[in-house]
Amino acid sequence: MYDTIAAVSTALSIGAISIIRVSGIDAIKITNKIFKGNDLLKVDSHTINYGHIVDDKDIIDEVLVSVMKAPKTFTKEDIVEINCHGGLATTNKILELLLNNGCRLAEPGEFTKRAFLNGRIDLIEAESVMDLINSKTETTRKMAINGVEGKISSLIKDLRQNIVEVLTNIEVNIDYPEYEDAIEMTNNLLKEKLIYIKEEINKILIKSENTKLIKDGITIGIFGSPNVGKSSILNALLEEDKAIVTDIKGTTRDIVEGEFILNGITVNVIDTAGIRTTNDLVEKIGVEKSKKTLENVDLIIIVLNNNESLSEDDLKLIDNTKDKKRIILINKNDLPSKIDMEKLKGLEIITSNTIKNDGLDNLKNKIVELFNLGKIEDKDLTYLSSARSISLLKQCVKIINDIDISISNDIPIDMIQIDLKNIWNILGEIIGESYSDELIDQLFTQFCLGK
User: Fold this and answer.
1) Where in the chain is the domain with CATH 3.40.50.300?
2) What's the rounded mean pLDDT across residues 291-297?
3) What is the DSSP string of 286-348?
């Protein structure tokens, strides 16, 4: 924390501009050593300065240098950002000069880690920074920015404040029983307070169930016998020729993937090899991959050929997926029907053909219905986005349930106080008021190098 770090904050590739970020007590001093222009040690904070980066007398690049002095910076340390011309050679050379003059190469996420450790942001805000970087849709962007701006943290802080007020009353009742102005924290009153806290936590948890969809999207697997039109359906959904389409059975021998956006949610689509009994070694490997994929998708689309009778492989696939979320898609409805619909009675069925893209809108609408995508309102995206935070909140609910049992059994209130303090501490872990060094190290290694 006391050394000065540097890293490239933009993508290290050919481009118009690259930004090298420097943070630490000697950030301005070190940059000034390699900068020819205004004396950076004397310029005002939050100014942009034109000049050149030099190596001895050799000009490396023409640059703009932003100087931002502590504490009004992202890390609450002195920060310098060098805007140079994009390109691998120039960017790497400037970074090399900084390292040679006293900087250390930043670890992944170290700038954001310093922002957290220096009190600039809390853990939820830090995790939201990563969500913002990784966001692929407008919905994920809105959710992440709510976290960055501290809206989600405020919910947790309010819950902690409610618990502090209860704990304070209990302390006063125990230590100063003669103090008449204090509210007597009876078991009934405590129960009322806990009901409110539990309801607020559950509201957050219910909303947070949508975060997996918002962050990770939905993974859909397209399954069926060879030559039923799985690859054509994939191409139609993606609106591009991602998979090879032929009349030859077994053309798709490996997993083919793509994604599209549906109601602001990313949908990951996997086209699998046709599932059938085969002696072809390569095709057999593809079939095994398809069977494994069945276990890891959120939705199964089983494609059947309207122009063929149901095979044993079709019936087996339908039976093996009866307990999973699925849609039966009868393809090639432009051809005469030879399929036995009696064997599909009671199943969720959509008919389609990929010649005219008939039925694809119905398929998308069914996906929206199955995952309640129409009910995800982007006007209130104050959800927790990390599995870590959600798990901690669920721990709080469990402890509240235990306290409820303790109250029913007339356990002394000073014993219940211990559990309340535990809830307060767990909520503190969510926003980073209490944490382990191991957790912080693990969390910030997921960030990109320049962040």
Assistant:
1) 215-375
2) 74
3) HHHHHHHHHTT-SEEEEEEETTSPPPHHHHHHHHHTTTS-EEEEEE-TTSPP-S-GGGGTTS-
